[in-house]
Design brief:
Blueprint lengths: L1 E3 L2 E6 L2 H9 L8 H4 L14 H11 L5 H23 L8 H18 L23 H10 L1 H6 L2 H6 L3 H31 L7 H8 L14 H32 L1 H15 L12 H7 L1 H12 L5 E5 L5 E5 L2 E5 L3 E6 H4 L20 H4 L35 H18 E5 L11 E2 L1 H17 L1 E3 L3 E3 L5 E5 L5 E2 L1
Parallel strand pairs: 2-6, 8-12
Antiparallel strand pairs: 1-2, 3-6, 4-5, 7-11, 9-10
Helix pairs in contact: 4-5, 4-17, 5-11, 6-9, 9-10, 9-11, 10-11, 11-14, 11-17, 11-18
Length: 486
């Protein structure tokens, strides 16, 4: 507990405490004043509380169904195949891993949840040229807006409008451009609803547009403001593509640093998928096997090391709240900000094995502690591994747990299976020092690995989620043509 004139802040990574704070949503609520910055386009499910937040959740929840998850799986297979072609066509090292993967996840959520089909630049004659009424492409607008979120959070809109500084002008332009795109998506969807009516299994976009328009709203359904339509379009598309991209980026980079674990995952892929092309992979049959196998273990372990959010905020509001931890009763004072430290909870030595760091790995030792096999059932006669409740909460817990969990899992499994079934991803060593195209000295590889480990431990920043801020040069090679470390 930190006590100051500015208020009380309680940090915790204790599993029992986390479960109570998460599941008692009426007692420990969202700090809407702090999170209100997310309402830059209108009220959102993330930054509202009480009945308003529950209404948004009722609108969105039906869209996360098997039809949506199957579509996420299929579109992820398609988009990751396109990404592979892009990488394979360039001989130079992959330097924009996070940017490329973010484009992939944006393509997926844009199509599945917002009915917007996107292609990679090489697949179209017009490459990223903005359409009429726009100064930025769709991709540029959302990417630029996310990059400028700190400015948009801090600087009032009237100031942005008159500021002579280029950084403010760019932030204002990205905000306006993305607003235009959301308005266009809303208007096109409204026109479709008026012409064709609503359909069963509607997308998130359709559900929110329908709830926000008198002419299309179900008389028995929830009613929201027009501003809330735009606010929730923003928060769902931003959260859906940015967080997934970061998790995939870390997983690929970690596997490149651990070729032994990468080979183990590929062996499991061979057993599960055989020689079938990705066009014959099934969401109903193959996805559950991948999720329960090594790919799912890689996702679980990556999210343990790089939780989407390093903390979940709560508050007691004006009422003191009691809870029990380790047999003792405690009372949290009124108006206390509570920060559930997921990063610490996922590394709490009481519940997770101690780490033996390698030479180049630094705190919090992500590469050294990367161990997907902990999530696998090594003995068929023993129960599957299950972490202590509250010690692993990548998707939060309780009534406000992430409703997009299954969507994220389907996307992750499809992308990793597509990439690693036919290819390997390895650290790109300095070719000028390599003996030839494949043989690499052990000392050179270790030096390259130490550089990657440094980026994975210190090159991490927090904006809307934990994001890799540095660069790790990688190479995509056909399986069987990997570097030989001698």
């Amino acid at each position: 507990m930190v006590v100051s004139a500015g208020g009380n802040i309680l940090w915790t990574c204790d599993p029992d405490t986390i479960l109570q704070f998460s599941k008692r949503s009426h007692d420990f609520t969202k700090p809407v004043e702090m999170m209100g910055m997310l309402n830059m386009y209108g009220p959102t499910i993330t930054a509202t509380e009480g009945e308003e937040s529950r209404i948004y959740r009722r609108i969105a929840a039906p869209s996360f169904n098997d039809r949506t998850h199957c579509s996420a799986w299929t579109e992820s297979l398609k988009q990751s195949s396109a990404l592979l072609k892009r990488w394979a066509s360039v001989k130079a090292p992959i330097m924009q891993l996070n940017e490329d993967v973010a484009r992939l996840t944006l393509h997926v959520i844009s199509y599945v949840c917002f009915d917007r089909q996107m292609e990679w630049p090489e697949a179209t004659k017009v490459q990223n040229n903005p359409p009429k009424r726009h100064s930025m492409s769709y991709q540029e607008a959302i990417s630029s807006m996310v990059d400028n979120v700190p400015i948009l959070f801090i600087v009032p809109p009237p100031v942005l409008s008159i500021s002579p500084f280029n950084v403010h002008k760019k932030a204002k332009a990205s905000y306006t451009e993305w607003l235009k795109y959301m308005e266009e998506m809303r208007d096109e969807t409204l026109e479709s609803l008026l012409q064709n009516g609503s359909r069963k299994g509607a997308s998130i976009l359709e559900s929110f547009v329908q709830a926000g328009q008198t002419s299309t709203r179900d008389p028995k359904g929830p009613e929201i403001s027009p501003a809330a339509v735009l606010g929730n379009i923003f928060v769902f598309i931003m959260a859906g593509y940015e967080t997934s991209a970061n998790t995939l980026t870390y997983a690929i980079a970690l596997l490149a640093c651990r070729p032994d674990l990468q080979k183990a995952m590929q062996a499991d892929l061979d057993v599960t998928l055989g020689e079938r092309p990705s066009s014959n992979w099934s969401y109903e049959v193959d996805f559950p096997k991948l999720l329960d196998g090594y790919v799912g273990a890689v996702m679980d372990e990556t999210l343990r090391l790089y939780s989407v959010l390093p903390f979940f905020p709560k508050t007691t509001r004006e009422t003191p709240q009691s809870f029990t931890s380790n047999g003792r009763d405690y009372t949290v004072p009124p108006d206390t900000l509570i920060l559930i430290n997921t990063s610490a909870a996922h590394r709490n030595p009481k519940y997770w094995p101690a780490v033996v760091p390698t030479v180049g790995d630094g705190p919090p030792y992500p590469v050294s502690s990367f161990n997907p096999s902990r999530w696998l059932n090594q003995d068929k006669d023993s129960p599957a591994f299950s972490p202590t409740p509250g010690s692993y909460v990548p998707f939060s817990d309780g009534p406000r747990a992430c409703m997009g969990k299954r969507f994220a899992q389907a996307q992750f499994c499809a992308v990793l299976a597509t990439i690693f079934k036919e290819y390997s991803v390895e650290l790109a060593v300095d070719d000028k020092q390599a003996a030839d195209g494949r043989r690499v000295s052990k000392s050179l590889w270790e030096k390259t690995k130490r550089s990657a480990e440094k980026e994975l431990s210190t090159g991490v920043g927090f904006l809307m989620s934990l994001k890799m801020t540095g660069k790790i040069p990688l190479r995509l090679v056909k399986r069987g043509q990997e570097q030989l470390v001698i």
